[in-house]
Design a protein that fits this description.
The chain has 331 residues and is an alpha/beta fold. The protein is 26% helix and 28% strand. The protein has helices at 46-50, 57-60, 129-149, 166-177, 191-196, 229-232, 251-259, 275-290, 307-315; strands at residues 2-8, 17-23, 31-41, 75-83, 95-99, 111-115, 120-122, 157-161, 181-186, 201-204, 217-222, 236-244, 264-267, 298-303, 322-326.
Length: 331
């Protein structure tokens, strides 16, 4: 049997993504076959297509994507279409959501095999496939940084830089869930959006530099890798924490502040953790979703056939929240 998939056989611009028919995978004894309903196009996910930064090629392939990495897409929602003989956690027909793993993509296809122990859980019935797929990247990243690394506490002052993006919109909501007072930094055009999801204060990065306003924060979370620890250090409280989800230059201050000074810099790679760690955070995200404490912000949706257009839109840097790829699958 074959299936439709978006295949990337060379690094480059969005048009390297090609719709093809490929062999439909068959689950091993400890795997499930997921019928993909929705996936996402994310700024982080662009690196698998562009091969940049170059270090990303250590995982995907040095000169071109390896064959096993040629179908991109990490976040997904769908349903179980078949199970291996040893699977006990899931049953055919279960609605699920999660992530394939950064080094084992494949969500841009009608079907994807997942280990029963992979980063996947049953989806809350009241949450749509599009919303479930869309919240995974931002939700897991925000929980990992704010909860696991920064140990966010009630009444802390938290600043989210890049608050209108996929990670930023989730981070605002996660911070509010834990009782923080949130300042969102984004463009004025997105003020209403971030306020609608809980931001207490807003700053337009185009007209005001938050590092010069005299305010101090317990946590500063740069979700887009645009600021540095040295720039933000003066805006941290004496025991403040700078979180960075996208700037490798934070590695050196992270190593330095681990041993010296009370203010800390933290850079973490959420998606390369173990499946058990991912599932633990995914379970918390699922609880928040079911309770209505977090919701996905979706800017645009594209059919699978227009995945290249979705990538091109993400690369404009103008998206608000998430871009969803709708995958129409038939058994």
């Amino acid at each position: 049997m074959t299936m439709k998939a978006i295949v990337c056989t060379t690094y480059g611009a969005p048009d390297v993504l090609q719709l093809q028919r490929v062999a439909q995978p068959v689950p091993a004894d400890d795997e499930v076959l997921v019928k993909i309903h929705a996936a996402t196009a994310t700024a982080t996910g662009m690196s698998a297509r562009t091969g940049t930064p170059f270090i990303a090629r250590l995982f995907s392939g040095l000169t071109k994507p390896r064959k096993q990495n040629s179908i991109l897409g990490v976040e997904f929602a769908g349903e179980i279409a078949a199970i291996g003989k040893d699977v006990t956690k899931f049953a055919v027909g279960d609605a699920v959501f999660g992530m394939t793993g950064a080094t084992t993509p494949g969500a841009y296809a009608e079907f994807k095999c997942m280990s029963e122990a992979g980063a996947m859980l049953k989806k809350p019935a009241e949450i749509s496939d599009n919303a479930a797929a869309a919240i995974v990247e931002g939700g897991l990243t925000a929980i990992n940084f704010l909860h696991n690394h920064a140990n966010i506490q009630p009444d802390q002052k938290v600043l989210i830089y890049g608050a209108s993006g996929s990670i930023g919109t989730a981070a605002v909501q996660v911070a509010k869930h834990f009782g923080a007072t949130v300042t969102a930094v984004c463009s004025a055009a997105n003020f209403a959006l971030v306020q609608s999801i809980g931001a207490d204060h807003v700053i337009d990065y185009k007209t005001e530099d938050f590092t010069q306003n005299g305010q101090q924060y317990d946590i500063i979370f740069d979700t887009v890798g645009k600021r540095s620890f040295s720039q933000c250090k003066g805006s941290l409280t004496p025991d403040g924490i700078f979180l960075d989800s996208g700037n490798a230059s934070t590695i050196l201050p992270m190593l330095w502040t681990r041993w010296f000074g009370r203010k800390k810099a933290i850079l973490a790679a959420t998606y390369v953790r173990s499946d058990s760690e991912q599932v633990k955070d995914l379970a918390l995200l699922k609880e928040m979703l079911a309770a209505g404490q977090i919701k996905a912000v979706i800017d645009r949706t594209y059919p699978l056939e227009q995945t290249a257009a979705a990538h091109a839109y993400v690369e404009t840097g103008r998206k608000k929240g998430n871009v969803v790829i709708e995958v129409a699958a038939t058994v």
